[in-house]
Amino acid sequence: MLEYAWLIPVFPFLAFMLIGLLPKRTLGWEDGGGYAIGGAVGAFVLSMLVIWDVLNGKTLTDDSVKTTWLVIGDSVSVTFGIWIDQLTAIMLLVISVVGTLVVIYSGGYMHEEGVGRRRYYAEIMLFISVMYGLVIASNCLEMFIFWGLVGLCSYLLIGFWYEKPSAASAAKRAFIVTRVGDIMFMAGLIILFKYVGNLDFSTLFAAGVARDAFASDPNMLTLATALIFGGAIGKSAQFPLHEWLPDAMEGPTTVSALIHAATMVKAGIYMTARTYPLLVLTPDSLLFVAIIGGVTALLAATVALAANDIKRVLAYSTISQLGYMTLALGAGGYLFIHAHEANGYAAATFHMMNHGFFKALLFLCAGSVIHAVGTNDMRLMGGLRKKMPITSITMLIGALAIAGLPPLSGFWSKDEVLAAVYSAGEFDWTFFVLWALGIGTAFMTAFYMFRMWFLTFSGEPRSEVHAHESPKIMTVPLMILAGLAVVSGFALFIGDGFKSLVGDSIGIHESEPVLDIAVEIFTDPLTYVSLVLAMVGIVVAYRVYYLPGFDRAVFARGVPGAFQRALENRWYISKFYDDFAYKVWYGFSVVADKFDRYVIDGIVNGFAYLGANSGTVMRKGQSGDVRRYTSLVVVGIVLLILFMVYILPWMTGERQWFWGWF
Amino acid sequence: MIPIEYWIIFSSLLFAIGAYGVLTRKNAIVVLMSIEVMLNAANVNLVAFSSYHTTLHGDSDASGQAFALFSIAIAAAEVAVGLAIILSVYRRYQTIDVDKINILRW
To answer: Interhelix angle for A283-306 vs A558-568, to 10°?
Structure first.
């Protein structure tokens, strides 16, 4: 079965082609929605078959069929193929489940969009297709191509409502900011290619190959891995390139769900996890990864505290959770090096999977709410619990999951992440600091998620809207995802346990009795620290945003007020970028413009004037007077003869000047 | 045998006369005739050097004379073309004064 895995991206791609090319009247239900669901389900079924094989211990890595894509010179060639291991299987699971449910949900959500739906479904299908391609790629270059296509598709979908200037600029911002990361990624690949001479996973990740290739200057390997992680900083919206993701909320909510849960931002985490065999060779890069992750997690969580746009809260929570995954990957590398454990790596991938489900759920719930009330602003919502029972309950499940309350999925994976970071502290004290950041983030996560839930669903309606529950086509995916958000955490205990499964993809197989895993979690005091903090967060949110009698005006004055304004302005990072772009870059552009206008153009125009004016002067010589021409010819010949006879011999020293003439 | 200098002086004079005619006369036909004179000066040179070849190099070579024949043929063709041009110029402008025919210019 595994050798047919390359068909997975083909299904959505076919759907993309059909939706794009078929005549309009043959598109059928929802202007192509039927084809889209067909493509998504086809890929889903195939993915499930592949995942089943992987769960049964089969993988297709070094020995997969490869095709030569590019031959450089006589010896160097780039081969493309497929690479299916446990990590790929997890990504396939997330993409296929979330992708399929999002497409189905779109059938209700995008119903009022009219003719735009055709473009929407075509782009969604391409998006899902290239994301599948990205996770099954067996070569860094192949991955990079899909990586770029993922960026393109997110650009197209974020700018879906391109008539709106804010959507158009958000799309451009997403594309340009992630491109900064892409360039770093490419630079890292170029360094790797220069030293190793091959970008195939089977060569790059083979034991000792990279280490030997970089034996003469190991610093270049550190640079290469750090640059490759730079690609993930852009794609997975890590600090300082995270500001594009909240702006990406300008797209349809379904697109946000897809970007946040399955496709775009997970690509960065996946890529970091995929290049793990290289990353663990360079502890400095790992520390860099972990610090970026920890800082991002905390920073984004603080901004989410004060956001008023429901999607923006979710966007910042995504950034924060992605920070967790990055942090776990960085810490896991230290565990891999020093203790030969897969804990951090497994925690990151586990959190990636769980986050995929509950974040898709939260976004689709938010979409359902927005669909009902027609605004993103939580200050205009409230009291929706009675009117939208299914949405409110499923969203509550999502919020509990992300807040990390047992037995929901977020609890297990967040606990694994924090435990891994804490145990990495044994090898570098920085991880204790990062662990503290993570704990703080856990508290804030619980608080802002419940702030959002209370503001949206409880209390009295704060605006005149006649909200109603969404149609079945939207609520059924919500219920499925809510179910997954509850149970996906128990993947930790399936078979030999999640850790031993994922550990295989980086060559660590530690099978631990699943009961031990549970005992380990519940006897560790740190588990209770994060749990208590999460519950305190929920209680604080309950006090402030649910119970009456709390004067929220306290947030508008004094020190809390200054804090609040800083948070509402997203720590001024976005403003800094805008100012930077406007002032510094604009100034530079003005200088460049002047240089172009006056120096470059001046030279070009100068030559043009020279040609034109010299022509005006010289054409006078062309008088049309035949006798003048002949006279000039004769004079010329005479001068030439004089030159040959008298001047040239003098110049060559055969005759003296003047006296030698005679 | 007449020394070769004589021939060279003769042909130079002939050439100079032709050139003078080209430069000074306005009538296009006379200009054409002067050109013929210049061409024939060159022919005289060719034939003279050819006949002196034996004296100068010890063997005979008739290529100079052959070139003179070529030159005469070309001159005949050139006169035919030149007269035809002059004829059509006359038809167009009612004049063959080369000073007045100066429209082939900027």
So the answer is: 110
Residue A433: other Cβ atoms inside 10 A = 14
Contact A624 B99 (CB under 8 A): no
The CA-atom distances, in angstroms, between A273 and each of A171, A219, A330, A347 are: 27, 21, 10, 11
- A63-67, A511-515, A657-661, range with the lowest pLDDT: A657-661
Q: What's residue A458's pLDDT?
A: 78
Residue A83, CA distances (Å) to A2, A66, A518 in order: 9, 10, 32
CATH number for region B4-93 = 1.10.287.3510
Of A33-37, A395-399, A405-409, A500-504, the range with the lowest mean pLDDT is A500-504
Tokens of A6: 């390359």
A72 backbone dihedrals φ, ψ, rounded to 5°: -110, 120
The pLDDT assigned to A593 comes to 92
Measure in Å the smallest separation between the Cα of A616 and chain B Cα atoms.
10
Q: Using the beta-carbon criterion (under 8 Å), do A634 and B19 form an inter-chain contact?
A: yes
| Largest interatomic CA distance in chain B | 57
- Give domain limits for chain A: 1-281, 283-568, 575-661
Element (H, E) at A146: helix A140-158
Can you tell me the distance from the alpha carbon of A269 to that of A143, in angstroms, rounded to the nearest whole number? 13
> CA–CA separation, A56 vs A90, rounded Å?
14
- Segments making up each domain of chain B, as ranges: 4-93
Q: Is A84 helix (H, G, I), strand (E, B) or coil?
A: strand
User: Cβ contact (<8 Å) for A622 and B23?
Assistant: no
Are β-strands A76-81 and A66-72 bridged in parallel, bridged antiparallel, or unpaired?
Answer: antiparallel
CA-nearest residue to A623 within chain B is: B105
H or E element in which residue A152 lies: helix A140-158
Residue A662 pLDDT exceeds 60 = no
For residue B31, give the chain A residue with the closest CA. A627
One-letter amino acid identity for A337?
Answer: I
A623: chain B residues, CB-CB within 8 Å: 102, 105
Which among B23, B98, B105 has CB closest to A622?
Answer: B105
Contact A622 B106 (CB under 8 A): yes
* Residue pairs spanning A and B at CB distance below 8 A: 26
0.80 exceeded by pTM? no
* Beta-bridge mates of residue A255: none
Write out the two tokens for A647.
Answer: 């001047």
Burial class of residue A494 in the structure, from the number of CB atoms within 10 Å of its CB (0-12 exposed, 13-18 middle, 19+ buried): exposed
Q: For residue A51, what are the CA distances in angstroms to A58, A314, A550, B90?
A: 9, 29, 51, 98
**DSSP-based three-state secondary structure for A135:** helix
Q: What is the pLDDT of residues A114-131, one digit of tens each?
A: 777 888 888 889 999 999
CA distances from A192 to A8, A145, A222 (A): 29, 16, 11
Judging contacts by C-beta atoms under 8 Å, the chain B residues touching residue A627 are 22-23, 26, 98-99
- CA-nearest of B65, B35, B33 to B47 is B65
- Please tell me the distance from the alpha carbon of residue A174 to that of residue A152, in angstroms, as a whole number: 10
**Chain B residues with CB inside 8 Å of A624's CB?**
102-105
Q: B105 and A631: CB-CB below 8 Å?
A: no
Query: Cα distance from A163 to chain B (closest Cα, Å)?
Result: 57
Task: Tell me the chain A residues in contact with residue B104 when contact means C-beta distances shorter than 8 Å.
Answer: 624
The pLDDT of residue B83 is 93
DSSP string, chain B: ---HHHHHHHHHHHHHHHHHHHHH--BHHHHHHHHHHHHHHHHHHHHHHHHTHHHHHSS---HHHHHHHHHHHHHHHHHHHHHHHHHHHHHHHS--BTTT---S--
The per-residue pLDDT for range B56-101, each reduced to its tens digit, is 787 888 888 899 999 999 999 999 999 999 999 999 888 888 888 8
Instruction: Report the chain B residue with the minimal C-alpha distance to residue A617.
Output: B106
